[in-house]
Amino acid sequence: MVNLLPVATTVLAALLSIEPFHIGGSAVLTPAFTLMATYHWTIYRPDLLPALILFLVGMVQDLLSGGPPGVTAVTLLLARAIILIHRRHFVDRQFPFVWAGFTVLAGGATFFLWALHSLLAADFLDLRGPVFRGVLTIAVFPIATFLLGRSQRALLGAG
Amino acid sequence: MLIRISPARRAAIERLSLPLLVVISMLLIIVGKADQIAVQSLRYSVMDAAAPALDMLSRPAAALNATADRVRRFVAVYRDNARLAEENERLLGWQQLALRLSAENAELRELSKLVSEPTTSFVTTRVIADSGGAYARSLMVNAGRDSGVTRGQAAITGEGLVGRVSDVGSRAARILLITDLNSRVPVIVETTRQRAILTGDNTARPILRYADAGAVAHIGDRLVTSGQGGVFPPGLPVGVVASVDSEGARVEPYAALSRVDYLRIVDYGLADALPGPVSIAARGIKRAEAGTGGPPLRR
């Protein structure tokens, strides 16, 4: 049962991404929580967060957020593919190294999403919002991975 | 997931499923782009299925928002009080004027036997999700077809226009905000009656595009819906011109779009005007009919 933790937290991350928070008064952008969960679990327990789950979570998030369906799914799946290739460099490494890895991934995802959305809109979309969201995502990552790591150690053991 | 599979087989499944799912996602993107009807029913079922969960999850968010709001107001109470007292003074003057005009209006209507405007009804709904992304501006609310919400109805707050209903499930609906990339709202400048289209581009301030080339926007110009295209009724307050540069005029919406918790979905009896999403075959013809108020009109 506790093996469902990665799936549960990733689903929660997807729902949090579309929660109507606006504490600051103008916070329209939500960090990409789903990408954080994907990165964390694909590094530490890729066996517990299979590609099929990422596909389904991405699809549901797209359908609920009103975006073009498949865009988040393909981003998460490509992120998984890239992380799996470099995974052994990140397991049991110092946090700054893991964060740097996420920064590269989030930067790549930001640009990929922008290119894909621009292609779908047949227009060069404004890059400021996406870049801001990318920076926000990278900044929030330490908190997210700390919480995920704590729950992982508490429920799954060292893994 | 808990089924025991040998590591070798698991690796084989992984090697195969990942590229396969990537290809499926790509195909879905293309299908979703080409044929909106194919995706629509799927979208509605997912919206309806997730609505209760989102409704529940959005309550702590709403409580948090309300608390933050209360703290902010508490801090500003002295300044706000002074401002409100002054504003009240001014509004009392306007009230007198409004009462006089309304009496005069009633008399003139009586004299000219003007056909009264169709009555409107509305549903008040709570926002349970927003798109949260950098590529779309929309909200999800906890009322749908069951409450009489239909596509094309206007969503407003007390301050002004928020957007229009773009998708309806049985108990949830999506509101496309006037700041979204796909939003086009026919408006007129209140004083000069010049016609323009308010064009969303995913930023907080949509761009104003004038219908006639000679028209110039001025900072402070008030915009209301023109009623053209038949999607919105005429006269709904939309926003005010906030900046003018070489790119065009930028409009600050009256409604605080980033802080909407509740909004009203209003039925003006115009809902039939909005054509449904079209399949690829019918697109050419339907688009020509759709005019300015239709569904996503990007190439």
Note the total helix count of chain B.
4
Radius of gyration of chain B: 23 Å
CATH architectural grouping of chain A: Orthogonal Bundle
Poorly predicted regions of chain A: none
CATH class division of chain A: Mainly Alpha
Largest interface: A-B, 57 and 63 residues
CATH topology of chain A: Arp2/3 complex 21 kDa subunit ARPC3
Q: In what range is the share of β-strand residues of chain B?
A: 15-25%
The radius of gyration over CA of chain A amounts to 15 Å
* Percent strand of chain A: under 5%
Could you say what the CATH topology of the domain at 119-273 in chain B is called?
A: Thrombin, subunit H
Known CATH architecture of the domain at 119-273 in chain B:
Beta Barrel
CATH superfamily of the domain at 119-273 in chain B: Rod shape-determining protein MreC, domain 1
Into which percent range does the helicity of residues of chain A fall? over 70%
Total domain units of chain A: 1
